[in-house]
Each structure stands twice: as C-alpha cells, then as structure tokens.
non-specific serine/threonine protein kinase (Naumannella halotolerans), 467 residues
Amino acid sequence: MGTVCSHTMGVMEQIGRYRLVARLGAGSFATVWQGHDDQLDVPVAIKVLAENWSSREDVRNRFMSEARLMRRIQDSRVIRVYDVGTLQDGRPYFVMDYCDSGSLDQWRRELRPPAQAIRAAAQACRALQVLHDHHVVHRDVTPGNLLLDSSSDGSLVVRLADLGVAKSMLDDLGSTMTAGTPSYMALEQATGGNFDHRADIYAMGCVTYALLTGAPPFRVRNLPDLLNRQEGQHPEALAGRLGVPAELDELLRRALSRAPQGRPASAKAMADQLDRIAGAIEAGGTEPGRTSIAFTHLRTPAPAWPTMPSDDEDAALTRRQPAPRRAAEPPSPASSATPAGQPSADRPAASVPPPQQPVGPISGGRSATPVPTPNPARHPGPLPPAAGWTPPRGYGQPQGSSPAPHRYGEHPAPTPQWPGQMVNDWSYLPPERTPTPSGRGAGFWWIIAVAAFLILMIVVWVIFQLT
C-alpha cells in the first residue's frame, strides 16, 4: 500500500506525515528533500528514488539496502534512518537525519585555517572507524559525504553520509562493478580486486589534503588516470607551504601509499595522530605569531545536505573492465573507535589527548542527536578563533579571492570520461548507455567523412564530363 502524497499544481508538498520544505538536490537516481515532522517538531531529510528507476527491482533493493545499513549503525557520527515508505507511484523513500551546517566540501572551497581542517579530518576518521567496527567499507569517502551538524551545545559534529556504495566485508555479493570517486579512490579499489578498510583510509588522506589545499592530492579525473599513477609519486609537501608540522606530511605520505600495508593501521590511529598535529598547531609551536585556532564554525547560508558530487569530484562507476595486472592486497582487521575530544592550547603537543567532543561555539543551531558534554576538568574550554587569518600564497586560490560556496545541485552533472563509464550521485548503478565519441577522435572521423564526400563528388563530376 503506497504512502499518501499531497500535490499542488504538480508540486509534491508532503510525503507521509512529513511536510516538504525545500528540495535540497536531485541526481540521476534520487532526490533529497528537506522536510519537517510536524508531530515531533523536528527537521528531517527525505531521500526518494527517481521515477525512471522505480521499475528496476535491483535498484530498489540497493536503495533499501542503504536505508537498512544506515539504520543498523546506530551512532551519532553516522547519518541515521528513522523511517521508510513507498509513494503511491511505487517509489521507495527513507527519512534520515537533517544536518544544518553544510558539508566539508564547502570547507574545502573556503580553505579554513589548518588546525580547523585537521580537526575536522580527525572527526571524519572517527566516524569512519564506526563503520569499520561494523565490518563495513564506505568506498566513497569525499568532502561532500562528510556533513556538518550543530549539536545541542552549539559545537559542530562531522557526520558520515551517503552509504549508497558501502559494502559489507562480511558479504560477498559477487559484485562486478567498480564504484567510487576516482580522485579519492585507492588503487586496489579501482582495479576491482579485494580491498578492505584501508581503502577508506586512503580516501581520508585525500580528504585531509583537499581540506588543506582546496583540491585532492593527485590530478585524477577518471580511473585510467588513477591506474597510471606512477610508483613513488607523492603530493606537494605542506610543512613549508602552510607552516604545519612535518609530521603531517609524513602521515599523509603513509595514508596515500599505493600499497595498503603502508597506510595507518586504522582510522582511529589516523585520527589520533591528526589530533596531535592540530594540538601542536593550536599551541603555536609551528605557527609563530598566529593565535590558537578552535574548531569553530562560521555560519553561512550554505545548504544543509550537499552530498551530490561537485564538479571536481567525478563519482565514477564502470562495469568491470579487464583487470590490470596489479596484485590485490590482503585485508587487515580494523581497530575500535573512540570518541573525539579537545586539546588545550598551553599543553605540549605530545601530551594533547585525542578530542572527546567537537570544540568551538557557534550561534544557534540544534540537533536531534545531542552529543555528550566533555568533562571540564579535562577540557578547559574552546580556544578563541584566529583573527584575520587568510590563506598564504599558493594555498590553492589566488590571494584576495573568495571561493563561492558550494550549493547542492548547482553544478552540472559530470561527463562520462570513456565508453562504459557513468558518473552519478550514488556511483553504484550500471550504465544504461555508452557515450558517443568526442574530442580529437570525433574530429578525425569528421575529416575522413568530408574528404570521402568530396572525392565522391569529384568522381561523379568526371563521369558526367566523360559522358
């Protein structure tokens, strides 16, 4: 039996008991709405399967699998599902947490101070550890899939979203697809072989680098670019460029290793090291003349659910191509997660504990899932934000410019890069068509066609003259 929907002049106004407030974004396979539960008086986000896919049973099953997975992982650091249903036209939907403060993709474009970016990356690692403790690999960790939510005490929490391509390590579904975003994808994931939680750790290395510089560490637009990455290729060092500790460059070098065994053993281990580095920066040890920076959110009118891929994040999906001759790495177990916390500015970097709570007040905001208040004896309080901080030259944008905030759905859909690839917001559905040739190859065939036509016309003219 379908759920009743209200329509006015063709515009959907309500889904079940949820009143629709605004459309947050639409992709090839789903539309996300901001809604409001009038009975509980709470905001919600509602994801509805696109009409053109509703007749595909495999697509419907994958859609509902995402909802079940998000429901099963009951943790405030992962977006949770509260309700599911079916529209009158047969399309399934599910209702989930609404995050009111944008995503880390907006932070990537704004280029926040290094300590803020590193703290946010550490929180994201701890959210990933929750998934790994449930034996799940996310497979598409990008800044746009890491949302920011204001908690009841006014601080910000990084929450992991969009589990549409997540794969349980305990389930072997015989998948024949490679899914994910190439510029954040580990090599072993791109080859379609066996991979484990360390593929997500590689992605977090890319996310951390992108938050600090505005772009992923490697110029990768498609899977061939990723597969052709040279052995020993490393991104530009950040210590001299941003005034961050050299330890950060070493951590990123390990996280971005082509070989899984060269990466940090767990997302928690990476989070702990990121927090130590942020503590050193906040203590002023590596940034002379710069005041300590708290994980403080400056509220902007950015949308609250920007989980669609942006124009430089090409979420790619292909039917599996013939596997390149690269050996897959064996899996290793993930360690358990711990909550996040806050270091003190006057404490030595070596003694800064991992944070138990996101720090830094913001104005207004509330969350349906409040976070425990940190112990004041261990955490003396938020540090003041840096005044007048501006990115240094070469930080990823021209000096004096201000990157436009990312608005969910404003960027055109990415274009397929080669036959058989499809770029979309979920990245787990098979392509329906093969794109036509374009670029230099298409121009060559146009020249051949024109030349053949001219030759034919000359032959006809000669025959006509002879007769």
